[in-house]
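#struct-pred
JK: can someone run the complex with NAI? inputs below
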Amino acid sequence: MIIANMNTIYPLIAVIGTGAMGRGIAQIAAQAASTVYLFDAQPEAAGRARAAIVAQWETLAAKGRISSEQVAAFSARLLLADNLQSVAACDLVIEAIVERLDVKKNLFAELEQCVRPTATLATNTSSLSVTAIAAGLKHPQRMAGYHFFNPVPVMKVVEVIAGLKTDPAICAQLAAFARQMGHTPVQAADTPGFIVNHAGRGYGTEALRIVGEGVADFATIDRILKDQVGFKLGPFELMDLTALDVSHPVMESIYQQYYEEPRYRPSVITAQRLAGGVVGRKVGEGFYRYVDGKAQVPPEPTAPAVADLPAVWVSPRAARRSELLQLVKDLGARIETGASPSPTALTLVAPLGFDVTTVAVVDRHDPARTVGIDMLIDDAATRRRVLATNPATRADIRDAAHALFSRDGKPVSVIRDSGGFVTQRVVATIVNIAADICQQQICSPKDLETAVTLGLGYPLGPLAMGDRYGPTNVLEVLFNMQTVYGDPRYRPSPWLRRRGALGLSLMHEES
Ligand code: NAI
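RT: done, structure tokens with the ligand placed:
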């Protein structure tokens, strides 16, 4: 006889599939006062899961985070089910089994035979269509996606996904239950990758393109994005942590599901590394090698010593020109103020989206003395500067620029010429994909920001990021990248084009 707790929206629930995700979901549901049945197709698996969850609570109690009474109360709410019939009385069944459409569909068909017609059915699928899983059910309106992130107790966001036939009231209830469990729900349309796995396409894929073009190596790109934008992990560190056997198939799946949309195009680099088993931290080797679990990061090239720095001429078309002039002045360089550079001056350009070579040629500068600097982000807001040479830049000019911009101790990365440097490309791609999510009305702009900050741990939501660095700057990067590469993957989303001039975050309340 089960004593259900009536203070919760779903007093009695079942979690089917008690692996990494099922355990986490069961843990937070029991903490939120639901009685939870655990069921797994593997004999003993549910019992092992229960023991592991109880051990988690005991660890929390040992740290003084919960009381021993709570451990006892939570544990009493975790029950084992021997078969699906045992979950017949449940108000909600959450499925977290293997990620296969046929297996999930069979499970739900079987569940429909057991549970009451009023019971809610939810799937934790990360990449399958909720609509497709619900197709064939007698009551598809009571089935929704409920996509948690790993580890569930720590990642406090859940995507609530309405399939084509889902009753909106079911989603509202699941959202309310998520709040009871201490999680933040976001509402997503049933589209490939939902919100988080869709919005996350920009970071890794653009970084892989940059590596693929030989613009900079893995470690340099990681350093730049951490130091300039404030990402906690560089894209290659992140891929090593997630492991390519997980992340490469996600890249392929979203690309295929969107019928080869160029924005999501995966990379041959990860395909090959996956084939070679070089998948990441868990095997000791990914983009980095791991010794005792620690990444072996190649040392950073030191700034060259240059005795005599040339005078510096800053292009009138440089992005953030007044900040750049002030910076060059603060670093102690002689600044030329003529209409064009003298024959010996270091010519500094700061393009958005365009490559240094194009700027030097179009503006009739001497390419041998022209160096570019990424000024998308105000120098005061970054912990690194990034310079780009063009194929004609002389070594002494490159070294002079490197030495000058290192004078105050801030690290400098010198990369090969590419439209958009590193930060501009990655930021613009992230903002553009986010804008397209808004354009498609996959979720509200507000939920997008919440999902990305909680689900991906970005320092800012992508729309806030676009606002911080200037929506018109981001648009300029994209327009010019499209010209440089002639590639539709950089075409700005209509949402970004329309709102670019107005500001992106201002529109949070409007979808
Ligand atoms: P897992 O492999 O750790 O656990 C799956 C469990 O389901 C296993 O214990 C297995 O014995 C059981 N199972 C398989 N088929 C079953 C069936 N027909 N009936 C009952 N039990 C069955 O997998 P994990 O990582 O927990 O993933 C589960 C689901 O959650 C998948 O749909 C996955 O895509 C999704 N997901 C996974 C995330 C992750 O980071 N691991 C994040 C978000 C969603």
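RT: quick notes.
The chain has a mean pLDDT of 95.
Residues 67 and 123 are 32 Å apart (CA to CA).
JK: thanks, will look after standup
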